[in-house]
Amino acid sequence: MSTGCCEPISSRSDIVLKVSGMSCGHCKGAVEKAVGALPGVSKVEADVENGKVEVSYNPSKVKLNDIKQAIEDAGYDVQE
Ligand SMILES: [Cu+2]
User: What are the residues whose beta carbons fall under 8 Å from the beta carbon of 38, sequence distance 6 or more?
Assistant: First the structure.
């Protein structure tokens, strides 16, 4: 692995949150919209069947707690 390319590794974090309450495509869309609206979030993918939400974000722009809060504000429960 060479050092640095387009994005230093420290500027991005990938996490998977366990989220309960999602049951259909609408839920998926609602969660993705809520999280995607946050600054610094480059990718969000909700997996309704497995109750997971995958998020790529820049920790210097948005805190993990803000992401959790956005999901909760949309009406779903973050398990971890
Ligand atoms: Cu739904």
Answer: 57, 62, 66, 67, 70
